[in-house]
Structure formats: structure tokens, C-alpha cells
Amino acid sequence: MERSLRNVLVVSCGFLLLFTAYTGLQNLQSSLYSEHGLGVATLSSLYGAVVLSSMFLPPILIKSGGCKWTIVGSMCCYVAFSLGNFHASWYTLIPTSILLGLGAAPLWSAQCTYLTMVGQAHARRAGRPSPDVVNQYFGIFFLIVQSSGVWGNLISSLVFGQTPRQGSGILAILLVALFLEPIEDSKQKSDGEPESISESFSSTLLSTFRLFKDKRLCLLILLPLYSGLQQGFLSGEYTRSYVTCALGIQFVGYAMICFSGAASLCSLLYGKISRYTGRAVLYTLGAATHLSCITAFLLWRPHLAQMAIFFLLSGLWGVADAVWQTQNNALYGILFEKKKEAAFANYRLGEALGFVIAFGYSTLLCVRIKLYILMAVLSLAMLAYGIVEYMESRASCKDLAAGGTGQVEEEEMQTEM
To answer: In the chain, at which end, N or C, are there fewer CB atoms within 10 A of the end residue's CB?
Structure first.
């Protein structure tokens, strides 16, 4: 097996094992611990900690420990949260959810950075376009990882009321620690004077915020914000106000299996066809699918006799979610190639803000208002994304024109000689 693909599979299988235990717990928080709002408070604390973590931790940890050991250390935080669910209370869930939140941003930032670097390195060796390989690797990763929602929710549905055993979380840590190969960024260091330790630390600490000087990042921040909002709606609102209300809590896991299964299969599909369709077509597909689902939610009146619709809508939601997961991560890695760690930290920051907002207004707004918010944010995100694509196409045209002019001048000089 090709070396880079083997590393992608090691990372993917490690995340699969980790999230098989975690996914079912996350989706059941708002329904299982609804008394006094413990479930929503747990999720809000979790993503609030992700926001703080995203601002500072990912660039520092990745630079000091590398992607591999950042992933290993962050996985331990997830295992701690899962253990806290064995004796669920305010004293166990809130502290462990904060710990998980602190580890989540470094975990996903390190994973995205690692896959981007592996994909770019393989593209250089194989003489292939870097975006094609990176998209393919993210497709493979999310095919495997999104399937964790199937297994995790199946466990939580078959043994409802019990938390999945944590052997899979421990196995995930061991798998990555023993078999994942470390990788270093191929960027060349500057030829200037070396920074002192304090200057290097402060530069790394502020790198997440400095990247906001790039207009493209300011526009694209709406994409992860919407990603967080829509995931928060699905796990916090759809599971409670639609599935639990009409069918009962025992059907939450099965509805989420449809979501995870569709997202998993579509992730692989998008990773393969993006080289032919381009990312704009996939973004259009994702936006159209979610807008259709949101419209259906606004018009639909859930009833026990319409059981198939519950699974159909969650599946369609997964079809669109696969676009945000694969294309957003690949897009950030490609556009901000020289500042990947800071770019992915900003991505997690935007996504965490979306989760916090979704869970924050969960008990304050009615479902209809939340759906209108989703529709508005999605529309603005697509508009901003379109502007970035236009900016990139203009920049590419200028580069081609500059290259063409230089070639013409060189040919004229050769003719005169």
C-alpha cells in the first residue's frame, strides 16, 4: 500500500474508533439529560471551550508537539468526557465537556493539517494537482469517520440508556501513537535572523488572529459558522423537537444512522468527483439540498404515521453535510497553504461559534425562527463563498497573463539574438 494512503487510513481508523464511542453520546445529550437543561448546558460548555481553544491552542500545540502527538493528546480528552457519562451529573459532565472542548480544536486542526500536508507531498511525488489529492484524502477520511455515526448510534439505540464502552477510545489512541508516521511541513524557513523563544511563542499565539488580515478568510468564516449551526440544529433540535417529540427517544439513534450513512458515502463520492466537477458545483448542491430540507421543516407537521420522512430528511441533511465537511476543509488547506495551522484553527473557531450560538438560543427561540436563521446564514455564506471564488479566478487570470507576458518577452529576446 502506498505510504501516504496508509497514513490516511491510520488517522481515519483512529478517528473512527474514537467517535464510535462519542457520537452516540453527543446526539443524545439534549434528549437524555433534558432535566434542568443539563444536556444543552453540557453541549454549550463543550463548544464554548472549543471557541477558547481555537483562539490559542492549535498553532502552539501543533508547532511544539507536531500533528501526531497533538492528535494523541487530544484524543485523551474525548475519552475523559465519555467516562464522565458513566455517572452523569453537573459535577462530571460540565468539567469533562470543557476538557473535551479544549482538546477538540487541536485534534481537528492537527488532523486537517496532517491530511493536507500528506496530500500535498504525495501530489508533488506523483506529479498530480495538489487540490485533487487533498480532496481525495479528505473524502476517504470522512467516509470512514462519518460511519462512526452509524456504529455509535446503533450501539446507543440497541442498548439505550447505556453509554458505549470506552475500549474503542483507548484503541484509537494506541493506533495513532504506534502506527501513524510523523510528518514535517515542507515550507522553507526564512533566511532572516532566528526568532527568540518569546518572539516565536507570541508569533505562534497570535497567528490565528493575524490571518484575519486576509480578506478571503473574513469572507469564508461564514462557511464554518454555518457548518456549526446546521450540526447544532441536527443534534440539538431535530433529535429533540422532531424525532423525540413524534416518535420517541428510542428512534433518535436510527434517524442519526441515516444521516451518518448518507454523509459517509457522499464524502467518498465528493472526494472522487471534485476533480471533474470543481468545488463550486458541490457547494451549489449542498446549499440547494439544505435549503430544500429547511423549507420542508418549515412546512412539515411531524406525525408518527410519517416515519419514513424522518429518516429521509436526516439522510438528505447528511448528503449536504458531506459537502461542508469535505470541501470546507480542503478549501482552507488549499487557499491558506502557507499558514495551515492558523487557517484550520480559524475554521474550528467559526464552527465552534456556530455550535455555541445554536445551543445558546436553543431554549430561547422557537423552531421556525431557528430555521429562518439557518436559511439566512446559508445564503450569506454562499454569497461570500462566491466572492472568494471570483477573487481566486481573477488572481489566476493575472498570474497566467503575467506568465504569458514573460514568455513573449523571452521569445522576442531570443529572436533578436
So the answer is: C
Cβ neighbours around 411 below 10 Å, total: 10
CA-wise closest residue to 81 among 114, 35, 47, 108? 47
| Closest to 7 (Cα-Cα) out of 108, 122, 104, 107 | 122
Mean pLDDT of all residues belonging to the chain: 85
Alpha-carbon distance of 393 to 390, in angstroms, equals: 5
Mean pLDDT of 201-210: 70
* Among candidate residues 250, 235, 322, 338, the one with its CA nearest the CA of residue 286: 322
Q: Which 3 state secondary structure label does DSSP give 127? A: coil
Residue 144 has pLDDT above 90, yes or no: yes
Count of other CB atoms within 10 angstroms of residue 10: 17
- What is the Cα–Cα distance from 133 to 118, expressed in whole angstroms? 9
The percent of residues in the chain predicted with pLDDT above 70, rounded, is 84
Cell matching residue 389: 471564488
pLDDT(318) > 60 = yes
Dihedral sign (CA 237, 239, 242, 245): negative
Residues 6+ apart with CB under 8 A from 220: 331, 332, 335, 384, 385, 388
**Interval 144-161 mean pLDDT:** 72
**What is the C-alpha radius of gyration for the chain, rounded to an integer number of angstroms?**
22
**Residue 244, pLDDT score:** 83
Under DSSP, the state recorded for 236 is I
pTM reported for the whole predicted model = 0.84
CB-based contact 239:256 (threshold 8 Å): yes
Burial class (CB in 10 A: 0-12, 13-18, 19+), 12: buried
DSSP state letter for 2:
-
- pLDDT (tens digit per residue) in 56-79: 889 889 988 999 999 999 999 999
* CB of 351 closer than 8 Å to CB of 227: yes
259 in Cβ contact with 234 (< 8 Å):
yes
Specify whether the CB–CB gap between 318 and 266 falls below 8 A: yes
Q: What is the C-alpha separation between 392 and 105, in angstroms, rounded?
A: 28
More confident residue, 162 or 185: 185
